[in-house]
Amino acid sequence: MIPLVDLTIDKKLRDKITKEITQVVDSKKYILGAKLESFEKKFAKFIGVKYAIGVGNGTDALRLSLRALGIGRGDKVLTVSLTSPFTAIAVVEEGAIPVFCDIDEATWTIDVADARKRIDRKTRAIIPVHLFGNPCDMSPILKFAKENHLKVIEDACQAHGAKYQGKMVGSLGAAAAFSFYPTKNLGAFGDAGIVTTNNSKLAKMIKCLRHGGQTKRFWHSYIGINSRLDEIQAAILGQKLKVLEVENKKRVKIAKKYKSNLSRLPIVFQKKYGRAEPVFHLLAARIRLRNKLIKFLKKNNIAADIYYPHAITEQPAFRKFVSDELPVTEMLTKELTALPIYPRLSYQNLDFIIRKIKDFFNVK
């Protein structure tokens, strides 16, 4: 079976990671040590920001960003419904109210024109989601936020290394959240996340809040949470960061081959804005016959899946936050299909997948 995602790593990288883990074990320092400090500095440099603060996961990265920015009970936060529900969970857990906006039909990212219709005096922030590694159109988002005094927190959990107008996503808002869940372009061997920012006061507060709100040992000046990126995961991520750009380039090549070979079929791929450079965390496409196609591919030992089968606003946990229909979002949830993409996908297997998709549509 050709998997949707393959987390296999080559022996050379595996050996380096094993050596790093052994160093952590020998150091007997497992929390808030030298490996984390080193990785935070390297990731901040990679993104092009002054600060990176390692945390437990991507959800906590969003939560801590909201809390450090003073956004909480009763405040409204604009975001989208076509994403992982954990984006909305972070907002709700801080006592804030998610306000769901529709998305652009071509790029599947937040529609700023729709967002403008949904603000009121309680709106305090906007969380644009760089869905599947495709950057949002950040210029109008930042302009809209400035005009309405909104904080911008980028959800870059699927966009490690993606660029917008020459700048890395994660460097464009007040703060950004990244997830290092194992399936991400930069994945840990468990849960992990990070917040990036250029604001020194914000970085200091997030560092404090991730450690329970302690300003010194056993002294809590704030109510924080327990969410620290541990030394072993930091050591692993430090090694994997070294190969991220190479692996992202492979993803881009694979995506281009899919698109060029399937352009004549009734398949619509995600579009990008102008000078945006996606990194294809997932390769999703609009396919009306997706259930039949997924079944056909499975019979041919090819995995495909639905991302996302349900909008956040369709799910019981979030119904009380739904105020309006989201026609583009609802349409896309009925069509989006994820095809295999990962750096180790061989061109032989890629050609086989493309050939089988063509067979399904009776195209040579």
Automatic annotation (TrEMBL):
Molecular function as annotated in GO: pyridoxal phosphate binding; transaminase activity
Active site: 184
BP GO annotations: polysaccharide biosynthetic process
Gene3D superfamilies according to UniProt: Aspartate Aminotransferase, domain 1 (3.90.1150.10), Type I PLP-dependent aspartate aminotransferase-like (Major domain) (3.40.640.10)
Highest taxon, organism lineage: Bacteria
Modified residues (N6-(pyridoxal phosphate)lysine): 184
Record's keyword annotation contains Zinc: no
Assigned keywords, A-Z: Pyridoxal phosphate
Family: Belongs to the DegT/DnrJ/EryC1 family.
Entry protein name: Erythromycin biosynthesis sensory transduction protein eryC1
Originating species: Candidatus Curtissbacteria bacterium RIFOXYA1_FULL_41_14
